[in-house]
Amino acid sequence: MATQSYAATPGVSATPPVPHAPVTPTSPLGGRSGDLALLALRLIAGLMFAQHGAQKLLGWFADPGRGGGGPPMGSLPWIAGVLELVGGPLIALGLFTRPVAFLLSGLMAVAYFTAHAPRGFWPIVNKGELGALYCFVFLLLAAVGAGAYSLDAQRRRRR
């Protein structure tokens, strides 16, 4: 097999072209700064999301005038509360991020279209901004993963 000499071709540099570096699964957003941004996003979104589950299931962070007791076990609000309370910390830790984020994104889409969208088209009108935002934050995490500063990345490195 003959090798191509780049110097022999008029107007072409003597060095071969360098292919673009592929985006790795641990740095989908551009290296260290992208991984730090994913860490911050995961920590904030995951811990805030878990508060919703704690409020639904445990009565924590509830309004002072709100009555006690959570939703009946097995009901849709109860299932949502369990997913929020368990999924939030998993997202914050970056553990099983892609499947958990995909599940939580779907949960928020269902919540938005069943509880908010019937009240009006615009999220600002139907009070669904938070659900829509969580839906797309989790969809992003499902697409790009947890980043380098996560338990998922540690698990990959140990293999």
From TrEMBL:
<feature type="transmembrane region" description="Helical">
    <location>
        <begin position="100"/>
        <end position="118"/>
    </location>
</feature>
<dbReference type="Pfam" id="PF07681">
    <property type="entry name" value="DoxX"/>
</dbReference>
<protein>
    <recommendedName>
        <fullName>DoxX family protein</fullName>
    </recommendedName>
</protein>
<keyword id="KW-0472">Membrane</keyword>
<dbReference type="InterPro" id="IPR032808">
    <property type="entry name" value="DoxX"/>
</dbReference>
<feature type="transmembrane region" description="Helical">
    <location>
        <begin position="74"/>
        <end position="93"/>
    </location>
</feature>
<keyword id="KW-0812">Transmembrane</keyword>
<keyword id="KW-1003">Cell membrane</keyword>
<comment type="similarity">
    <text>Belongs to the DoxX family.</text>
</comment>
<feature type="transmembrane region" description="Helical">
    <location>
        <begin position="130"/>
        <end position="151"/>
    </location>
</feature>
<keyword id="KW-1133">Transmembrane helix</keyword>
<dbReference type="GO" id="GO:0005886">
    <property type="term" value="C:plasma membrane"/>
</dbReference>
<dbReference type="InterPro" id="IPR051907">
    <property type="entry name" value="DoxX-like_oxidoreductase"/>
</dbReference>
<feature type="region of interest" description="Disordered">
    <location>
        <begin position="1"/>
        <end position="26"/>
    </location>
</feature>
